[in-house]
Amino acid sequence: MLRLRVAMPADEVLRSAGVRFGMIYAALFGISSVALAAFLWWSTAGVLERQMDDAINADAQGLSEHYADGGLPGLIDTIEQRLAGNVDDDALYLLVDPGFRRIAGNLDAWPTHLAMDEAWTDTRIARGKQQRMQVRLHQFEVAGGFHLLIGRDVRSTGEMRRLMADAMIWAAAIAFVLGSFGAWAVRGLFRATLADVSETARAIGAGDLTRRVRMTGQGDEFDLLAETINDMLDRIGRLMDGVRQVSNAIAHDLRTPITRARARLEDAARHAVGEADLRAAIERAQADLDGIVGVFQALLRIAEIEAGARRSAFAQVDAAPLMNDLVELYDAVAEEAGQGLEAEIPEHLSMFGDRDMIQQAVANLLDNALKFSPPGRAIRLEAHRDAHGISITVADHGPGIPEADRTRATERFFRGETARSTPGSGLGLALVQAVAVLHGGTLTLEDNEPGLRAVLRLPDGEPRRLTAP
Amino acid sequence: MRILVVEDDRDVSGFVVKGLKEAGHVVEHADNGRDGLFMAASENFDAIVLDRMLPGGVDGLRLLETLRSQGNSTPVLFLSAMAQVDDRVKGLKAGGDDYMTKPFAFAELLARVEALTRRGKSEGPQTKLVVADLEMDLLSRSVRRAGQKIDLQPREFRLLEFLMRHAGQVVTRTMLLEGVWDYHFDPQTNVIDVHVSRLRQKVDKPFPTPLIHTVRNAGYMLRPEAP
């Protein structure tokens, strides 16, 4: 049984499936957050940077075309025009002669710390009022030993990057909090779902067989699990009821003959006047005890059949000679009782089953018919094969079983009103029913108008695996 | 006859031993499997009544298997509380000759033990059974009494044959069901009595002395004259 504890030691925390699921959830959430952040960064800050580089390159391309058209003066003109048109004042140009003296541009001097072998440089320079201005520069060689520097003031993108980074940090913090909360929630959900199963199991274990797992009605996997568990519990409940009913019946039905035997022995011990009296009492008590033993044996046999242990003895059998033997055995009795036994049995009735059990089942039906049928009316035994297998019918003209009692008539120890006055244990039909179920068949009780028609239907193939009722 | 009873329950064994002695047999008793095996292996018995669950480390099945592996073929009747069909099959497979479940009636036990000892002594296939003036020819499947032919149905013939083979012994209803009809269950109705009474109509009624006798609380016995 699953137990949920409030406080658990560390290793048990890790062993808890709820914690594990929570942690897996958190890890997945973290990984997706990081992936999302990386994409955001690449598609915003990264794009800005690439756009700036593209702009500088395009600028350089334009200047180089103007240089090609108008030479150095054309280049200087173009730079002046560009500076004049640059309202944001973020573009930087500087054209120097081979001695690095300024010719045109909005920078005062060639930055001293600029490495000559690097095309791109990110650096800080002094310009006008601003002492340290973050810039991105690209230097070009111009024919004749002249140098051209094109750059952009990156303060605004730097600001953007910083904002983004801040946002990312906050987002990470929020993601962590959300992830943890989610993990905790998942673990809680997991526990809550199992808690009901666990609680139900515990209640059942404690003896409350009426408890069932709650269904959410969503038809999801947990619902399916709950349904399976509930089905199992229903079946256990039915079995328990059966056991209870049988033990009550045993207690009740055996009490009567035991009481009788005891009374006879005690009465004999106190009042018997001679040896003959004593012997008679003892013999009657013995007969009572034998009756009790008979009931026990019948009960055990039914239990044995129901347990299905005997299915190993199944084989291909011809039921026709079995029926003929039974007719031969019972015919004499029926004749003696003035009832007569009519039989209609085909030559062959091949089927798959247990020979002894089929014999006993049909014998029980014949016993019943003989017991209840009045003299002068014949009992009928019919066997034939139909589409579903073999059906064996025993019909009598006795009082029959009222419709209301028919379903209960196959329960152990059930004895109808009309049967109370006749001897019997109330186990005969229960055994027939058990045999039918073991073979994957059915026993139906019908009205013979008047009397009882018991129809035992047995499939003739290998029996399918059964779920007993 | 010498009979060994291996049974640990003192009341049951006392009852069985006393009963067998009263029936004129010589009886030895062992109350555990080890002693039982020792006695069964070292002495000659005509039959062994064997409980299945025994103290002493050797249970009934082991005892019998050991005995059979030594080539000892003394007839063995199991007397056990283990009553399921599978238990019976197991006991017979281990080499048991008969299987009775507790609780039991002593008459049934005695009848079966005596039937076993008779079986142990069978002297080849017989062609003719004779009891007093009743003759049965097993080859031509005909029955005569006092020279007069008696017509019997096949089942009646087998019933009479069973009774004649066990002449002088008590034969219980269960034994008849098993031996003549090969049924291993007890019908609720008195089917056997009806069949025996029909047999009597043919075998006994036309003649001055009856051969088939009812033994009260036990069964039937076929014997030449009243004791």
Characterization of the model:
The complex is a heterodimer of chains A (469) and B (227). With 469 residues, chain A is an alpha+beta fold. The two termini of chain A are 28 Å apart. The model of chain A is unreliable at 1-6 and 463-469 (pLDDT under 50). The longest helix of chain A has 51 residues, at 155-205. Chain A has helices at residues 10-15, 17-43, 45-85, 155-205, 221-271, 275-307, 319-336, 355-372, 403-406, 428-438; strands at residues 91-96, 102-105, 120-127, 130-142, 146-153, 315-318, 341-344, 350-353, 379-386, 389-395, 442-447, 452-458. Chain A folds into 4 domains: 10-43 and 161-204; 45-153, 2-Layer Sandwich (Beta-Lactamase); 221-304, Helix Hairpins (Orthogonal Bundle); 308-458, Histidine kinase-like ATPase, C-terminal domain (Heat Shock Protein 90, 2-Layer Sandwich). In chain A, the strands form 3 sheets. Chain A has a 5-stranded antiparallel beta sheet. A 5-stranded mixed beta sheet of chain A has the order 7-9-10-12-11. Chain B has 227 residues and is an alpha/beta fold. Chain B folds into 2 domains: 2-120, Response regulator (Rossmann fold, 3-Layer(aba) Sandwich), CATH 3.40.50.2300; 128-222, Winged helix-like DNA-binding domain superfamily/Winged helix DNA-binding domain (Arc Repressor Mutant, subunit A). Chain B contains 8 helices and 12 strands. A 5-stranded parallel beta sheet of chain B has the order 2-1-3-4-5, with helices on both faces. In chain B, strands 6-7-8-9 form a 4-stranded antiparallel beta sheet, with helices on one face. The longest helix of chain B is centred in the middle third of the chain and has 15 residues, at 106-120. The mean pLDDT of chain B is 88. At the A-B interface, helix 6, helix 7 and helix 8 of A face helix 8 of B.
